[in-house]
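hiii, so i know i said id send this last week but things got crazy w the move. better late than never?? heres the sequnce for the chain we talked about at the cafe, plus the structure i predicted for it. fair warning i was half asleep when i ran it
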Amino acid sequence: MKRIFDFIMSLLAIIVFLPIIIIISVIIKLTSSGPIFFKQRRIGKDNIEFNILKFRTMRIDTPNVATHLLENPEQWITPIGKFLRKTSLDELPQLINIIEGDMSIVGPRPALYNQEDLKEMRTEYGIEKLVPGLTGWAQINGRDEIHLKDKVELDKFYLDNKTFFFDIKIIWMTVLSVIKGSGVQEGKH
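okay and structure toks below
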C-alpha cells in the first residue's frame, strides 16, 4: 500500500509542480553553467547505492562532500541555490526517485555513499531494510543539526513505529517545517 501511495502522490505532485519545475530549470540554466540536475550516489534500501536527483544549487566545480564540511560553502552556491535550499525546492526532482522506487515519501534520508559510519549504525539496527525517504522522522526532528547517533535513534523509532498515519503526520510536519524554513542544510548539490 505504501508503494502505491508513494507512486500516485509523487505522480500527482509532479503534475501540480510542473510549472515550478520548468521555471526553476530555466533559471538554473540561465544563471550558471552546468546541468540542471545534480546526481549524487546515495545508500538505498539494503545498502544498495542509487543516484539521488536534486536541482543543482552549487557550482559544478564544488568538492563532492557534504555542504557542512566545506570551509566556505557560500562561495560555491549558485545565484538561485540559496533560495532553492531554503524552500527545499531543490528536492523536487526526488519525486522521480520515488516513482522509480529508489525512494519513498517517508523514510530515513538516504546517506551519502561515503558515510560509512551512518551506514554501519543503521545496519546494526536493521534500518537499512527501509526504503529511504524524501522526508523522515529524523529530518523533521533536527535534520543536519543532530548528531549521527541521535539521527539513527530517530530512524530506529520510525522503523519500530511506522504506520500509514505516522507517515501522514511526518508529511504534515515536513510541510510546516518547509514553510518555516527550519533546519535546512543537507548534502552538496
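btw The beta strands are 37-43, 49-55, 104-106, 133-135. thought thatd interest u
miss u guys!!
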